[in-house]
């Protein structure tokens, strides 16, 4: 089992070189075909204090987007060189909708962290909630500034749910490379059935050549306990099911998923 095709999302604003290196390193590790992706769309006409945004201003913004995408492609191809099989896809379109559409070609989507710059700008940045919950593919969110993925220690945030089961299977290629894997459940009311569930996960992993151990944390503060445990373990990768709900026009994460994504010192692997 491997990732034969990896799709990496490159925002048109902000530094992208570390994420390029991260995705290239990952593709080289699995001998994957790597697809670089970038998209943005001009802002919709809107009322400014001075009046409506003009057609000329929109045309100028479109030209700026096209130039930035062209430069990103050049940078991506230069970074990748001949190290990996690669191609490029882009569009002057809503980046979230387009990458969800493009996800059909990939085994894995790689993207960077959300930050204050990305929020409230759907025309220039992907909505991570919509991507993870609608793409139908696992999403690997790189640690902030990381140039390569490290998997010496991996933590699986386990719940006996469809999303968590999907995440464990989707992450197997990475988990097989980890030196240490810990399957952790945070459950104040943990009982014998909880132990059986987590033991079954470890047995499943063992049959795939992954050495894993289990940990049950009896605490009602699920997000805080999980993050504290991951930090104590020095985790470089956290694997989790992604949970969310609808909020009018977008999908937003549940509390644990949101807390995981806010902790950008390690990479996060999410499936829904």
Describe the structure.
By secondary structure, the protein is an alpha/beta fold. 38% of the residues lie in helices and 25% in strands. The protein is built from 9 helices and 14 strands. It has helices at residues 17-30, 55-80, 95-102, 128-134, 162-170, 172-175, 192-207, 222-233, 255-262; strands at residues 5-9, 33-40, 47-48, 51-52, 85-92, 108-111, 139-141, 153-157, 180-186, 212-217, 237-241, 244-247, 250-253, 267-271. The strands form 3 sheets. Strands 5-2-1-6-7-14-11-8-9-10 form a 10-stranded mixed sheet, with helices on both faces. Strands 3-4 form a two-stranded antiparallel ribbon. A two-stranded antiparallel sheet has the order 12-13. The longest helix has 26 residues, at 55-80. The chain is globular. The protein starts with a strand and ends with a strand. The model has no long low-confidence stretch (mean pLDDT 90).
Relative helix content: 25-40%
H/E order of the elements? EHEEEHEHEHEEHHEHEHEEEHE
- Total count of helical runs of at least 4 residues: 9
Structural class: alpha/beta
From the alpha carbons, calculate the radius of gyration and give it in angstroms: 20 Å
What is the approximate shape?
globular
Tell me about the biggest sheet? 10 strands, mixed
Question: Could you give the order of strands across the largest sheet?
Answer: 5-2-1-6-7-14-11-8-9-10
How many angstroms does the end-to-end distance come to?
A: 19 Å
Query: What is the beta-strand fraction?
Result: 25-35%
The total count of strands amounts to 14
Low-confidence stretches: none
Mean of residue pLDDT values = 90
């Amino acid at each position: 089992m491997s990732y034969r095709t990896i799709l990496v999302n490159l925002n048109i604003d902000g530094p992208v070189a570390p994420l390029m290196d991260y995705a290239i390193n990952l593709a080289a590790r699995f001998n994957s075909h790597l697809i670089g992706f970038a998209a943005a769309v001009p802002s919709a006409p809107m009322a400014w204090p001075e009046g409506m945004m003009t057609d000329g201003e929109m045309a100028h913004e479109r030209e700026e987007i096209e130039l930035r995408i062209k430069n990103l492609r050049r940078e991506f191809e230069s970074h990748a060189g001949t190290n990996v099989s690669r191609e490029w896809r882009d569009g002057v379109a809503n980046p979230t909708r387009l990458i969800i559409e493009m996800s059909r070609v990939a085994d894995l989507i790689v993207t960077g962290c959300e930050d204050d710059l990305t929020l409230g700008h759907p025309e220039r940045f992907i909505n991570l909630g919509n991507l993870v919950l609608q793409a139908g593919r696992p999403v690997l969110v790189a640690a902030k500034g990381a140039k390569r993925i490290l998997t010496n220690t991996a933590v699986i945030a386990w719940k006996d749910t469809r999303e968590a089961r999907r995440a464990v299977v989707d992450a197997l290629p990475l988990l097989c490379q980890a030196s240490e894997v810990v399957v952790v459940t945070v459950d104040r009311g943990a009982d014998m059935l909880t132990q059986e569930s987590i033991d079954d996960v470890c047995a499943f992993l063992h049959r795939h050549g992954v050495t894993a151990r289990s940990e049950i944390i009896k605490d009602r503060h699920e997000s805080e306990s999980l993050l504290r445990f991951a930090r104590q373990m020095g985790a470089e990768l956290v694997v989790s099911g992604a949970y969310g709900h609808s909020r009018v026009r977008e999908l937003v994460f549940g509390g644990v998923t949101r807390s995981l994504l806010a902790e950008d010192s390690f990479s996060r692997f999410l499936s829904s």
